[in-house]
Amino acid sequence: MSKKEEVKVLEAVLKKFTNTQKPMIQKWWFQIALWIIFSSFIAMGIALHKNNSIPDFVYMIWIMILGAAVGIAAMLKVSARQWPMLLPHISKKSIESRLDELNT
């Protein structure tokens, strides 16, 4: 890992210590909106495919992209939920001292 990448990662972790705001992905209204959007795109793909408006391979790519998007959303939700449990076990002083070391 390069020096620049390490600084970027350490600063992101350090920012988690000061951020007390709940991540957008964990808000109930955002979850509902996200699933409505995903469901709408899936229904639209099915409707287009049944009417022969799009070829099979386009439909398959459409569904794969939506599946990847659902997977990423699930991963982000789990990650956001786990951060508060992990933060007490991470040394803030160690991160700050390493950042000072890298920035000098």
Describe what this molecule looks like in 3D.
The protein has four helices and no strands. It is elongated and about 60 Å long. It is mainly alpha-helical. The two termini are 18 Å apart. It has helices at residues 3-18, 28-50, 56-86, 92-103. Helix content is 79%, strand content 0%. It has one domain (3-103).
Helices and strands in order, then pairings?
Elements: H1 3-18, H2 28-50, H3 56-86, H4 92-103
Number of helices: 4
Class per helix and strand makeup: mainly alpha
Radius of gyration equals 20 Å
Order of helices and strands: HHHH
Instruction: Count the beta strands.
Output: 0
The percent range for helix content is over 70%
Mean pLDDT rating: 89
Q: Spans with pLDDT under 50 lasting ≥5 residues?
A: none
Outline:
elongated
Number of domains: 1
Largest sheet: number of strands, sense, barrel closure: none
Q: Identify the quaternary structure here.
A: single chain
**Terminal Cα span:** 18 Å
Beta-strand portion reads: under 5%
Brief summary:
Helix content is 79%, strand content 0%.
Provide tags for this entry:
mainly alpha; 104 residues; 4 helices
